[in-house]
């Protein structure tokens, strides 16, 4: 290599290095991977043009960009304040399990975007809880909690479906259901009063049962005496009694008898 060719060689080498770097950037930017549980939105010059599934895919560098979307089940939790039918304040925390409809990602992105928790879900939870809670009294909310949850779930599922957000079976849970302090105290006092009344009723029933048992016992004893008396009369009355006494006598006379006392079992004529 002559001295005149050295600058040309370095220029060629520099060009080759730059070309390799640009080529590697181009190649690396031409492929992307979508993992399991994801979808990828493909944008061409900023406009969504397709949705790709999991796997390795090609895109045109610079002209196309990718936005990956998680389509697995997500969890959203939101508080909601409402008033019952009898105007008691109710504070609720609702938990929602949901996922985006994989077949409707383009429509979802085009209408509301992908920030669905802040834009869609939180607001729908607030509206639904207020509407459903207003149908029940505070007491009914306590005793019919499962029905309340079902009503909220049905309404929320229907509303979110319109935005291509799917709520799974059992995906709505009421994790907190609180009332005002005054109402809680009133409920506690009512429960104490009911417990005392129940205790008093149980005691009354116990006394009544015991009295009935004593009456039944007395009636049984009286009936036994009557039966014995009838039996004695049927066997000859006094003579039957003397006979039974003789049968039980051991043959020994008393060693001492009071003045005027009759001799046992002997009838003096």
Description:
- By secondary structure, the chain is an alpha+beta fold.
- It folds into three domains: 14-70, no CATH class; 74-179, Tetrahydropterin Synthase, Chain A (2-Layer Sandwich); 191-247, no CATH class.
- It contains seven helices and eight strands.
- It has helices at residues 5-28, 105-111, 116-133, 138-143, 145-161, 181-234, 238-248, and strands at 31-34, 38-44, 47-52, 55-58, 64-70, 74-83, 89-100, 165-179.
- The strands form three sheets. The protein has a three-stranded antiparallel beta sheet with strand order 3-2-5, with helices on one face. A three-stranded antiparallel beta sheet has the order 6-7-8.
- Helix 3 packs across helix 5 (145-161).
- The protein is elongated, with a radius of gyration of 48 Å.
- The termini are far apart.
- The relative contact order is 0.07.
């Amino acid at each position: 290599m002559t001295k005149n060719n050295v600058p040309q060689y370095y220029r060629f080498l520099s060009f080759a290095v730059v070309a390799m770097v640009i080529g590697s950037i181009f190649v690396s930017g031409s492929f992307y991977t979508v993992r399991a549980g994801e979808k990828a939105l493909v944008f061409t010059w900023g406009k969504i043009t397709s949705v790709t599934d999991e796997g390795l895919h090609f895109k045109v560098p610079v002209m196309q960009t990718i936005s990956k979307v998680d389509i697995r089940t997500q969890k959203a939790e939101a508080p909601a304040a409402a008033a019952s039918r009898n105007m008691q304040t109710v504070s609720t925390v609702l938990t929602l399990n949901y996922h985006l409809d994989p077949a409707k990602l383009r429509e979802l992105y085009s209408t509301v975007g992908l920030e669905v928790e802040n834009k869609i879900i939180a607001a729908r939870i607030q509206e639904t809880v207020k509407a459903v809670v207003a149908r029940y009294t505070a007491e009914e909310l306590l005793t019919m909690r499962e029905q309340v949850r079902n009503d909220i779930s049905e309404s929320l599922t229907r509303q979110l479906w319109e935005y291509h957000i799917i709520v799974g079976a059992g995906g709505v849970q009421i994790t907190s259901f609180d009332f005002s302090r005054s109402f809680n105290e009133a409920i506690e006092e009512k429960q104490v009063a009911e417990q005392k009344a129940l205790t008093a009723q149980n005691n009354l029933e116990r006394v009544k049962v015991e009295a009935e048992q004593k009456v039944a016992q007395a009636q049984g004893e009286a009936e036994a005496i009557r039966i014995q008396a009838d039996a004695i009369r049927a066997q000859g009355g006094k003579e039957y009694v003397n006979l039974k006494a003789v049968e039980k006598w051991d043959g020994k006379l008393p060693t001492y008898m009071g003045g005027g006392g009759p001799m046992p079992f002997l009838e003096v004529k």
